[in-house]
């Protein structure tokens, strides 16, 4: 037997016993929809996001978005809108300035205000990070209480790529002062529907 085969055989024979995963059912919550929405709004605003709550309104999302973007980012803003599914254009983010990135996250988390974005919303991974501002449309039915529930839902639709995003880019590395927008979006807006 070669030394390589001998080493591999010793490794196979020296495996530790399998240990069962811990029971995470203690993390389940019986939180009402209203509490989830209120918590998500509170935490998201603490994360420096702007939240617009349209849950109990009959406003047309398309008309609201057009007016909101024009009023808050300018009528001539370059918008990278991923709501159209397969009609998402390719953009060279090295040469093109994008004012607003728009997406519909699959999951939002109340405890930390983050949102799960997959390759379906990010055909170009840089799009959420190379844009000046981010605007997420969150369906209030997709808000979960904690990251434990979020990760269990992520397993169901992980896709090729996914990322949790919470608020605009923030850093406090330099002289311990908070800088917003240093490595990504300067502002983050969440529209709850």
UniProtKB/TrEMBL annotation:
InterPro entries (UniProt xref): FTHF_cligase-like_sf, LUD_dom, NagB/RpiA_transferase-like
Pfam families found in the cross-reference section: LUD_dom
Residue ranges annotated for the LUD domain, each copy included: 49-193
Source superkingdom: Bacteria
Name under which the protein is recorded: Lactate dehydrogenase
Organism whose genome encodes this protein: Neptunitalea lumnitzerae
Originating gene: lldG
